[in-house]
Design goal:
signal; 13 helices; 14 strands; 2 domains; serine-type carboxypeptidase activity; globular; single chain; disulfide bond; Peptidase_S10; Serine carboxypeptidase-like 7; alpha/beta; 433 residues
Amino acid sequence: MKLTLKLLLLLLVILNQHVDSGSIVKFLPGFEGPLPFELETGYIGIGEEEESQLFYYFIKSENNPKEDPLLLWLNGGPGCSSITGLFFENGPLALKLEVYNGSVPSLVSTTYSWTKMANIIFLDQPVGTGFSYSRTPLIDKPSDTSEVKRIREFLQKWLNKHPQFSSNPFYASGDSYSGMIVPALVQEISKGNYICCNPPINLQGYILGNPITYFEEDRNYRVPYSHGMALISDELYESIRRACNGNYFNVDQRNTKCLKVVEEYHKCTDKLNRFHIISPDCDITSPDCFLYPYYLLSYWANDESVRDALHVNKWSIGEWVRCNRSKPYNKDIKSSVPYHMYNSINGYRSLIYSGDHDLVVPFLATQAWIKSLNYSIIHDWRPWMIKDQIAGYTRTYSNKMTFATVKASGHTVENKPNESFIMVQRWINGQPL
C-alpha cells in the first residue's frame, strides 16, 4: 500500500512538471531583498504532444503594463539563452563584476532596462537552449523555418494564458543570429493573423541589433570594414580586392593569389576581439576580462537555489550553458532579406541598429542589404544625440525602417546599454532618434 502511494505521488510530480505553468518570482539568489519588478518564469509546451518545453522569463513593464508594448526578445547563436539579453543588454538586473568566491554571484539593479517602457518575454529557444528541454528525443533536427513556427505557436499559447496582453502593441526583437529568425517570424505572425489565430497578435514591427542577414555577404564586408578602421593597409586592401573579386572567405582553392592575400588579412585581424575590436581578446575566466560576467553567469544559473527560485523543472536539463552549440541545427534560411521585403510591403515598422566596432556583422553589411530593399531615404544620415553628445548616426527610409549606429559599441551593444535604452525608447514612442 505504501509503495503504491509513493508511486502515485511520484506520478503526480512528473505530470505536474509537464503542465504549462507560469510562476511569479519574488526573490532571486544573489539579489538583496525582493525584486523591484514583477518576474514570471515558466514553460510553454510546443507540438502536438507538447513534447518541447520552452522556458521563458517574463518581466512586466515598470511603467504601464496594461498599455505598454509587449516585446519578445531572442538571443542569437543559434542556441544562446535569452538571459544573455536580460542580464547583459536590456534587462533590469545585471551580474556584479566581482571575483568568484564560491558563493552565488551577486546581482544588481540596472538603470537602463527596456522594461521601463515595455513588457518583455525573454525566450530560450530552440529546445536545448538555456532551460528549455524536450520530454522525448527529438525526431527532427531544429531549423530556422521550424523554429519560426514554434515561436509563433509559443506566442499564441502564451497570449492565451495571458489574455490581458493580447491587445498590447507587439514587437519581435533580438540580435545577432536572431536576424535570421525575427524577420521570418514577423512574416509568419502577419500571415497567421489573417488565416487563423485567436487572439490575433497585435503586430506592429520589429527591432534587430547587429543582425546576421545573409551570412556569406555579411562576412565579405569584414574586409572593407577592416580597411576603413585601419586594421589593414591600403595596399593589402587593394590587393585583396583585385585578387578575390569580392569573395574573401569562400575562396576557390585554385585562386592562389586570393588565398595568399586573405592569409595576410588574417594575420592582421585574427588576434582581434571580433565582437568588439577595441576590447582585448582575453580569457573570460580572467576577472580583468570585460566578459568575465559571462563566466559568473554559469555559476549563477547552475546553482540549485537559483533553479529552485526560477521554478526550473528538476531533471529537465543537466549542466546549464549560456550558448549550447552542440545540438544539431539546420540553418535553412540563407538570407532574411526576402522577409524584410515582405514586412516592408506590409507596413511594419523596424529599427535596425549596429554597434560600429563589430567585426562579426559590420555595419557596412547591414547598410548594404537595407540599401538593396530600394526604398527612398526620408531623413538622411545625421548624428543622433544624448544631451550634447553624439551617441551614433541614423537614417530613416520610406518603408518605416530606421537604421542607427551606436558609437563605440560592439556586436551586442552591451557596453552601451544606456545609449541603446534611449534609442529604443525614442523609437518605440515614435520620436526621431
